[in-house]
């Protein structure tokens, strides 16, 4: 593979943050400590530790964490010798207050995440991160759902707020390889900062999409050991490291240590294996939020139609989080349409 | 995606054959019946039913089947209305005797499988298949381990024996996307018959490699629902169907039915989830047979070295099945080398 960037790759392990969803936010302090110690020894560059929905996510709405994330961040910083500890922040859920607290505990990197069309809400937090001396990174979620030009526009906004890298975040695992290529390519032509890629494995394409992103010049790559993450999970870090090594791309990460910690440290944390089941497959196929699944099932039952048709239609219309009231409307419309077709 | 062949895609479901390994050859007749019925209703073109190691594989050496495969083939033929029932035959394990028997029960398609360098042993069986009026297909296993020119030479041999299609079979899940591309491309330039691709998911690249193969002109594609297959399993059929549909490529297969049978029919058959664990990852990374894993572990213990180093060296040397006595030699050599390096 010929990479279109000569910067070294930086891998960010997200199992202790995105994986929080997969364990219903029940990480214990000792789990975080042993995972960080092992990841650090294996040479992983960055380790993200936060509630699954970012700083401040431990609420009734998003799911209460077993252990306060600040305690987990503190523990992670204590255990890490070389790896940097990262945090995630979704403006509106987390605030600059939590950001300052995480920074004071030793987190040195923050990813400020917004919906792909709403980069403007990240300004304050990216500025504050820079002010604090943290590395400030933009994270454009549901990147599949916006046209490429829109994605570029929003990434440039984040750059203007001080972001040192911007991520294409495939939250629904909905991107196809050629769509990753065109997105990273377009950003490389428009930004002067680094480009990142965060994949989900709903369509079993996370590793392959990540390779495409790396080839096109992405240098910040997210992975999760054993795919421990929301939905079908993320790019399986230890597999990615093996594939890159096989391709002659050195990440500086120790493959055998990664295999060992996948088996002995992260494996036992899994509540269930990260297979691709109907729910996550539909999510990737339709390109919708996982939170829509339950709503669509209810609406499907009510109107006597297949919930998957509702999800596909929601994806087609680009309905986003916060617009859940649209689900019933779409279901009613589809039901009406299918009735007309029968008549 | 622009496909380099205008022939329709033919999907062959291998969970009831390759998946036999994953369930220790314990398929029951009623499992086969319900799976075939559902796959047939979903519109899957071909369904392979045999012992994991092909016809005649039910032995002490390869593992005894719970139910005689001829009984399973007969049941599959009975349940299928449109799907063709395929069988696998490895010359040396299966013979023309079993082939005739499978044919008399209604199997209409045989894949004759040899190591990538040993196509010559398939002549008799491919000829016989044609004589019987079955569709005769060549299956070149461990295709990653031979140079492209060798693969082409061997595929041409199979074509000369009457094969109507030849498969690139990535038995160890060791191929990278660019290696799939160069292999399918080379075959397309040299054969006048159809080209097939059979992937394993050891490096989490099965679906992506399959897309590359289809783009380059492969028209015969193997998949297994829920990845039910040896090692990390195969290209997950229902995921592939979703991805192709998303790309605008119609397989004629009903996606929702595939999702439903994945959840309700095949899912309950799984003895364990098809995750990518150390064993299968090392296999894909090193490009070796799964049967080497245990041997390498024993040799590693005996010589005090990491079994993974042995496997990588075996892959580098292209050691194949039947050469297991080399494993101790390689281990001894590596141990000697590492001792010299310390001194």
Descriptive report:
Two copies of one chain form a homodimer. The first copy, chain A, is an alpha/beta fold. Chain A folds into two domains: 10-269, Aldolase class I (TIM Barrel); 288-342, Orthogonal Bundle (Helicase, Ruva Protein, domain 3). Helices cover 46% and strands 12% of the residues of chain A. The first copy, chain A, has 14 helices and eight strands. Chain A has helices spanning 19-22, 29-42, 69-79, 96-104, 123-132, 148-160, 177-190, 206-215, 237-246, 255-266, 278-286, 292-303, 307-317, 325-342; strands at 10-13, 46-48, 84-89, 109-115, 135-141, 165-169, 194-198, 220-223. An eight-stranded parallel β-barrel of chain A has the order 1-2-3-4-5-6-7-8, surrounded by eight helices. In chain A, strand 7 (194-198), helix 8 (206-215) and strand 8 form a beta-alpha-beta unit. In chain A, helix 9 (237-246) runs antiparallel to helix 10 (255-266). The longest helix of chain A has 18 residues, at 325-342. The first copy, chain A, is globular. The N and C termini of chain A lie far apart (56 Å). At the A-B interface, helix 8, helix 9, helix 10 and helix 11 of A face helix 8, helix 9, helix 10 and helix 11 of B.
Domain module count of chain A: 2
Query: Assembly state here?
Result: homodimer
Low-confidence runs of chain A? none
Rg of chain A over CA atoms, rounded to whole Å, is 20 Å
Largest sheet of chain A, described in full?
A: 8 strands, parallel, barrel
Chains forming the largest contact: A-B, 42 and 42 residues
- Give the SSE string of chain A: EHHEHEHEHEHEHEHEHHHHHH
Provide the CATH architecture of the largest domain in chain A: Alpha-Beta Barrel
């Amino acid at each position: 593979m010929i990479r279109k960037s000569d910067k070294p790759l930086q891998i960010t392990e997200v199992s202790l943050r995105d994986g929080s969803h997969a364990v219903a936010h029940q990480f214990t302090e000792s789990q975080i400590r042993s995972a960080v110690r092992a990841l650090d020894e294996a040479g992983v560059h960055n380790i993200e530790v936060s509630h699954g929905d970012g700083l401040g996510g431990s609420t009734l709405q998003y799911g209460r964490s077993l252990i306060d994330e600040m305690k987990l961040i503190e523990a992670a910083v204590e255990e890490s010798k070389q790896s940097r500890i990262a945090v995630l922040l979704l403006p509106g859920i987390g605030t600059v207050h939590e950001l300052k607290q995480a920074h004071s505990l030793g987190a040195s990197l923050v990813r400020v995440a917004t919906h792909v069309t709403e980069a403007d809400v990240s300004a304050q937090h990216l500025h504050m991160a820079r002010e604090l001396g943290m590395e400030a990174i933009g994270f454009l979620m549901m990147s599949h759902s916006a046209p490429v030009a829109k994605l570029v526009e929003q990434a440039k906004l984040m750059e203007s707020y001080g972001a040192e890298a911007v991520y294409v975040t495939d939250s629904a695992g909905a991107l196809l390889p050629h769509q990753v290529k065109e997105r990273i390519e377009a950003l490389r032509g428009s930004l002067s900062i680094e480009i990142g890629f965060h994949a989900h494995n709903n369509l079993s394409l996370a590793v392959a999409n990540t390779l495409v992103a790396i080839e096109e010049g992405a240098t910040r790559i997210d992975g999760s050991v054993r795919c421990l993450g929301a939905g079908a999970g993320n790019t399986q870090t230890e597999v990615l490291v093996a594939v890159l090594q096989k391709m002659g791309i050195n990440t500086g990460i120790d493959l055998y240590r990664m295999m060992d910690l996948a088996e002995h440290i992260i494996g036992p944390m899994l509540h269930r294996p990260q297979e691709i089941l109907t729910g996550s497959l539909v999510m990737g196929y339709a390109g919708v939020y996982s939170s829509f699944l339950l709503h669509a099932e209810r609406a499907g039952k009510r109107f006597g139609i297949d919930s998957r048709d509702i999800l596909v239609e929601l994806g087609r219309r680009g309905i986003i989080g916060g617009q859940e009231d649209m689900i019933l409307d779409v279901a009613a419309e589809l039901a009406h349409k299918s009735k007309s077709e029968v008549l």
